[in-house]
Structure formats: C-alpha cells, structure tokens
Amino acid sequence: MNRRLAYAQLLRIPNVFTAITDVSIGLIATSALISVWPWIIISSACLYCSGMAWNDYFDRHIDAQERPDRPIPSGRISPNLARGIAVGLSIVGVASAMIVSTIVAPSSPLPGIISIVLLAMILAYDARLKATPFGPLAMGGCRFLNVCLGFSLSALGSLAIVPAAIVGTYVVGITFVAREEVGRSRKPVLMFGLTLIAAALLGAILVPTLGLAKGRSLAVILISLLAARLVVLSEAALREPSPRYVQSLVRSAILGLIVLDSALATSLVGPLGLLLLVLLIPAQLLGRWVYST
Fold it and tell me: CA nearest 19: which of 176, 160, 150?
C-alpha cells in the first residue's frame, strides 16, 4: 500500500484528470472519431504524469530540505527509478500521438508534432525554467499545448486558440499563486496570480458558441460556481498567506480546471460538455488520498 501511494504521489494521480479534460475540449468540439480518443487521451495523460515525475526528479535536492516526505527524498522511490518512470511515460506519451499521426489519421501530422513540442516544454520547465521568472509562462504553455492537442485532428484547429489561451492563462495564475506555497506567500504575488485566474474565468464566459446559446448559459453557471469557490478560498489565503490556506486554494484551483474545461466545452457544443464534470468524482476521491501540489 505504501509503495502504491508513493507512485501515486510521484505522478500526482488526482491531477491527471485535468489533463484529460484539457484535450477533451477539442475532441468533443471537433467531433473527433472515437478511434482517436484513446490515443490522444493516453498521450495527454502520460505526458502530464511524466512531467510530474520529471519535476520530482529534478527537484529532489530541494525537496530533501523543504518536503522530505515526498517519494524520492523519503527513500520510497529511488532517483533512478523516478527518472526511468519519467522517461517511459514520455516515450508512451509521444508514441501514442505519433500513432494517431501515422496510423489512425495519417493525413494529420499535428498530434505527433504537438506532443513533441509539449514534451520539450515540460522538460524545459522542470529542468531549467521552474525557478525563473519564465516558469509560470512555461507551465501555462504546457497547458496551452495540451488543449491544442485535442483540437489537432480537425479543420477547426484555429478554434483551439481561444480555449487554449484561457486554460493557459488560468494555469499561469495558479503557478504564481503556488510559487511560494511552501512558506509564507507574499500578497502581491498572490494578487497577481489571482488576477490572472479571474481574467481567465471572465474570458471563459465570453467564448463564442457554435450556434448553441444554451451552452453559453450553462457555461456561465459553471464558471460562476467555480469563481465563488475560489473567492472564498482566496479571501482566506490573502488574510493568512500561510501554506495551509494557500495550498488549499491551489488544490481547489487545480481541480477547478475540470470545471473550467467543462464550461469551455459546453460553450462550444452545449450540454454534451457537461460530461467532463464526471471526472471530478475520481479526482476528488483520489485527492483525499494523494496530494495535488
């Protein structure tokens, strides 16, 4: 049991559902063939989990000081094993997208190209950019590319820019909020991150529909519920910017990606986008067992 928990913590298993809903926006909005779905979802999920494993591998010396209970510094997973897991997941993630580009839908090279660029961005963030001023932008770029991966098989690919930019901006905001979560966060940094999150949520309300006004109304309801939840947690974090309150805000904001993705899909295609909310259930349940940040 302890071993399984260590793997789940290394890969941030509750969060993988947010990567799946990212790509599902495009899969739903562009009516991608069902035969394509598993490969794109596997690619997205594996690349996300590889990023989490790479993160802990590159941060193992910092975690030994700040978070000694994590899988690598605690000795439950060796650095070599973590690196091997990261490499394996990276290969599977890119290979799954390449299968789409070469076998399932050979006329479209974009899935394979995007997966390679996404992996490069993940590695750049984890190995070099995380602690720099460019870190939040790189993290947002990863999510931007992940959303684009879901749109990569359709002529509607240009439609991906708006939802991808919204999700990317939202994640840049989360990254700023989480930047100092280990200690006492600075309020200006929190405020900047929260402003970006608010801008992303506002943008989600303004996403153009594909002729389905009902989708807009449902999307506004979802965004309003998410915003209300985050406002309550943000007030607590700004009042007392300690790890307890900031990390609670970050966890909710990360899982809130599922709600945001569902709202964006609903804006585009109507009630069908609400199906993505189902993934909140396993994400929430696993979140009680495994940390998200």
Answer: 150
* Spatial distance between the Cα atoms of 216 and 210, rounded to a whole number of angstroms: 10
pTM: 0.94
| Residue 46: half-sphere exposure toward Cβ, Cα within 13 Å | 20
Distance CA 100, CA 153 (A): 9
The Cα-based distances of 78 to 2, 82, 128, 170, 289 in angstroms read 14, 6, 21, 33, 22
What's the CATH code of the domain at 78?
1.10.357.140
For 141, the domain range is: 2-287
Q: Could you read off the pLDDT of 60-69 as tens digits, one per residue? A: 999 999 899 9
Would you state the pLDDT for residue 228? 97
Q: 């070469």: which residue's tokens? A: 102
Instruction: Name every residue whose Cβ is closer than 8 Å to that of residue 222 and which is 6 or more positions away in sequence.
Output: 259, 260, 262, 263, 266, 277
User: Domain for residue 165, yes or no?
Assistant: yes
Residues 260 and 226: beta-carbon distance below 8 Å: yes
